[in-house]
Design brief:
The chain is an alpha+beta fold and 439 residues long. It is built from 20 helices and ten strands. It has three domains: 126 residues, 2-Layer Sandwich (Beta Polymerase, domain 2), CATH 3.30.460.10; 164 residues, Hypothetical protein af1432 (Orthogonal Bundle); 56 residues, no CATH class. A six-stranded mixed β-sheet has the order 3-4-5-2-1-8. A hairpin with a 6-residue loop joins strand 4 and strand 5. Helix 12 packs across helix 17 and helix 16 packs across helix 20.
Length: 439
């Protein structure tokens, strides 16, 4: 039995020598076992966890150990593979099935504590591509798994100064033309999109997907934004697709979580369907964005948290940008539409997405976004209202003798809701020194 450290841990150690000697608990490490059987692994205390092929957890470190394997394409799509794992499969054969050369390097377990000083097993010149900053496929077998298009695009977002090898880009285009991405499992697409959104420069993922033709198949709502003009006085970058990429990268710069980054991706989808005769204006694009967002979320089964935040941002980002012009009543209505009083933490995320939108414009990257602090103050003022006290006071009016119980309850409920709304308007007006006419 021979054990090797493979993949990302080797790659990252060679890219950053500081990570080479990090504690194992701080580094994701994958191991390949050559010359073993599943029975032998279990006898040594390893826990089998692989459903499709033999993968085991180490009894102490809980790191993954996989038997060396090969794979063969049997049907279209992500699941169309047959795996072959037996003691005779070599390390070189296992490395040959991997996606990128920079992920197809290994070192022996005895030297794994510092891969930079180890004898590198590198049959596909991954170290050369690391040095040259190139993302290159290992073999033509790359074309057998359409998920690898998404994975490569994700690595482009993680390593934004890497280029895609011309022959790899050509192969990706061939895969797209052959319809391979049309067979992708929705959950797998979302998983890779989510990972790419959380990388250092998420825009690179979508640029690579667009360059190989996959973006129009996966997210046509996003792909059509390139070439759509916007008013230069609001958007010096003019092109909506360029703006979208700037917003995404701003979300990474500000350390936003996944729901915020997804909201940034989808906030302007409606601009792609703006009637040509009103360009470069985009009247009503917020509602169109929300409608298109629903299709994206259904297609790729986007989780509820990301879906709901993106919907609020798509509908309300224009109002939030202009909120400094609002009176107290309009500000309270904005809070109510955003459900900010029930979900204040989500409202903070809404404001962050809007800040990314405002600063993701040419020459605006370092601009302040005062709307955020102001609307947080508006929310705090509205939250200060004693809603329970207002409800008790309204109920003390009792039931009108001419009303039945149901009608009386409805009238009381409406009276309470209106009283609370007006109290919040007064509180906001007082906090911001705004006028608020009595109802």
């Amino acid at each position: 039995m021979e054990i090797y450290l493979v993949g990302g841990a080797v790659r990252d150690a060679l890219m950053s020598p500081q990570s080479a000697t990090s504690e194992p608990s701080h580094v994701d490490r994958d191991w390949v076992v050559v010359g073993a059987t599943p029975e032998a692994m279990v006898q040594q205390g390893f826990l089998p966890v692989g459903r499709d092929f033999p993968v085991f957890l180490h009894p102490e470190t809980r790191e993954e150990y996989a038997l060396a394997r090969t794979e063969r394409k049997t049907a279209p799509g992500y699941h169309g593979f047959a795996f072959h794992a037996e003691p005779g499969v070599t390390l070189e054969a296992d490395l040959a099935r991997r996606d990128l050369t920079i992920n197809a390097m290994a070192v022996a377990q005895a030297e794994a504590d510092d891969p930079t000083r180890a004898r590198l097993i590198d049959p596909h010149d991954g170290q050369r591509d690391l040095r040259d900053r190139v993302l290159r496929h290992v073999t033509h077998a790359f074309a057998e798994d359409p998920v690898r298009i998404l994975r490569l695009a994700r690595f482009a977002a993680r390593f934004p100064d890497f280029s895609v090898a011309p022959e790899t880009l050509a192969l990706m285009r061939h895969m797209v033309d052959a319809g391979e991405v049309d067979h992708l499992v929705p959950e797998r697409v979302w998983q890779e999109l989510a990972r790419g959104l959380m990388e250092q420069r998420p825009s690179r993922m979508f640029e690579v997907l667009r360059e190989c033709g996959a973006l129009v198949r996966l997210l046509p709502e996003v792909d059509r934004l390139w070439g759509v003009p916007q008013r230069a006085d609001y958007h010096p970058e003019v092109d909506t697709g360029v703006h979208l990429m700037m917003v995404l990268d701003m979300s990474a710069r500000l350390g936003a979580g996944l729901p915020v980054r997804f909201a940034c991706l989808c906030h302007d989808l409606g601009k792609g369907t703006t009637p040509a005769d009103i360009l470069p204006r985009h009247l009503g694009h917020e509602e169109r964005s929300a409608q298109l967002l629903r299709g994206v979320c259904e297609r790729w089964r986007v989780p509820r948290e990301s879906r709901e935040l993106a919907d609020v941002v798509a509908r309300e980002h224009g109002h939030i940008h202009r909120s400094s012009e609002f009176n107290a009543a309009a500000l309270v209505r904005l809070l109510e539409r955003c459900d900010a009083l029930r979900r204040p933490e989500r409202f903070v995320d809404v404001l962050l997405a809007c800040e990314c939108d405002a600063r993701g414009r040419l020459g605006h990257g370092d601009n302040p976004y005062p709307q955020s602090a102001r609307l947080r103050g508006v929310l705090a003022a509205a939250q200060s209202v004693d809603t329970a006290g207002i409800a008790r006071a309204a109920q003390q009016h009792g039931t009108h003798p001419d009303h039945n119980a149901q009608a009386s309850a409805m009238a009381t409920g409406d009276r309470i809701a209106n009283a609370i709304h007006q109290a919040r308007c007064r509180a906001v007006a007082l906090a911001l020194n705004l006028e608020h006419p009595d109802p």
